[in-house]
Amino acid sequence: MSDFGDINESPNSPTKGYNTMLFTRACEYVPNFIMNSATYDPWTQEYPGYVAEAKNNQFGALQTTYTFTFGGYFLGPIRNLNLIISQCEGDATKNTLAATSFGDTNNQIAAAKTLRAFLYMTMTDIVGPMPYSEAFQGESLDNWLPAFDSQESIYKALDADLQSAFKQFNTASNLTDDDVIYGGNTAKWKKFNAVLRMMMAIKMADVDPTNGKARFAQAYADGGFASNGDSFNWTYDTNSNCTFYTIGNKGYTARGLGYGPNEVVVNMLKEYKDNRLLKYFELNGYLGDHSQGVDQSKLSYGVSDAMDAQINSLFLGIPFGLASNNDVTAAAAKACSVAQDPYCQMTATYGVITYSRMLLVEAEAAEYGWISADPKALYEAGVKASFAERGATGADAYLATAKVALSSDKATAIKQIVTQRYLGGFLNDGIEIWSDWRRFNIPVIPINVEPAKYDIKVYPYRMSYGDNDVLYDKDAADKAIQTYLGGKDSRWSRVWWDTKDNI
Fold first, then answer.
1. Cα first-last separation, the chain
2. How far apart are CA 358 and CA 227, in angstroms?
3. Which runs of consecutive H residues, i.e. helices, occur in 231-354?
4. Whether 464 contacts 68, CB under 8 Å
């Protein structure tokens, strides 16, 4: 009988998962955690008080049933990253082109584990308990109904996995540019690995400081970002354009004009006389030019009291959650544009976890005595890195002001550090900023919804599970809800590390 070989294999459709394509596709889920995709409701920027609706009150009443579905991440990027690891480790696959075309297999494994940990960390910070230890056991162990692990155990497992991956990196060689985040630069992935461990450890300060300190100290010793060029950023392309190109009130698309700046962040920047305000927002908005003939490029805090007052009068924000659509549009009519052009372009670059944030997290750890470092030096370096990243001037003078100069009182200093993370986080660091608010209630975000209609006293602490995540694994989900979430799959239940009352 003749051997027809690969006659049934299409040359245009790959029959194997090539690690190059698998990694690229996994990376494409990262921006969901800055703006939760190009939808009309960017809750990751609403909840921290950064943006507000400019046309109506569709989401400001906080009544929509917000859910986060993690199942798609298991099916998509995490499955891809698991396949990369298995193909690099398997005797039958590790020397095939599907595996080796992406570069050194040890580096592939380490980068895949690092990106996978980022996805898991962010998802568990959003919902709390979720499948981890028994995930992906369907085919191997016929376990199609995995347990939901506690966030505490997930954090512990992720830290161990990241430490293992850190040691596996070989920075003498790089991956290919199919890595659309770092261009294959394994030294930057290795730095990001250590930063991720710091991000998890710092959130343990109120719930498990002993283990938090040990994990943070190890990650800090391993090293993190060394400059803004190391930040974990996402650059959109014309196929997956920036959310604010789609819904921001620059009006680039028919669906635009949706969101403007929340008055919370605008007022706070004005209170601190912070020149990043002038780099975030512009006065020529979609409802007209609010500049009153002033050249914005000539404005700067600290030149004179008159100019400070002028800036404060020109730049306005929109309250989130007003009573009616008319109230929203009336507020928006007075407000500046949501963001300057660099944040609204199809190919905008946003920070997911930035160098400045890492430095300010290290400053918090130094205040706790978790690392042998000067918190003031880290704090000032973090603020300067943020100003440089945004192209703002006057960082030295800003740091010398009474409100910003780091206090010698520990409790006050911690609040100042977290405040600077907030002021530097606009359209960056979405989930991490929300996590800061959950831990510290900084900033205080007013509830503007009508109290007679809605019994809401505070912004949500987590997202509820997506319907399918609960429906197809109901017993495990119900057990986790009872065990870890106080019996309610509510947006006002608390994740493990969130212990403080924000009311």
1. 78
2. 10
3. 243-247, 263-271, 277-280, 305-314, 325-332, 341-344
4. yes
Assess contact for 269 and 423: CB atoms under 8 A: yes
Burial track 369-392 (b if 16+ CB lie within 10 A, e otherwise): ebbeeebbebbbbbbbbbbebbeb
Beta strands in 325-402 (DSSP E): 349-353
- The Cβ of residue 97 has, within 10 Å, a number of other Cβ atoms equal to 11
Q: Is 294 exposed, middle or buried (0-12, 13-18, 19+ CB in 10 A)?
A: middle
pLDDT digits (tens, 9 = 90+) for 14-69: 556 899 999 999 999 998 888 765 567 788 888 999 998 888 788 877 766 678 99
Q: Residue 187: enclosing H or E segment and its boundaries? A: helix 186-202
pLDDT tens per residue, range 452-489: 567 788 889 999 999 999 999 999 999 999 999 999 99
Helix, strand or coil, per DSSP, at residue 247: helix
Among 225, 34, 200, residue whose Cα is nearest residue 42: 34
Q: Which two tokens stand for residue 238?
A: 């014309």
**d(Cα 167, Cα 260) in Å, to the nearest integer?**
44
**477, two tokens:** 């989900």
Beta strands 464-465 and 67-68 are parallel
Q: What is the CA radius of gyration of the chain?
A: 23
Model confidence pTM above 0.70: yes
Burial of 237 per CB tally in 10 Å (0-12, 13-18, 19+): exposed
User: Shortest CA distance to 152 belongs to which of 484, 499, 502, 493?
Assistant: 484
- Run of H or E including 131: strand 130-131
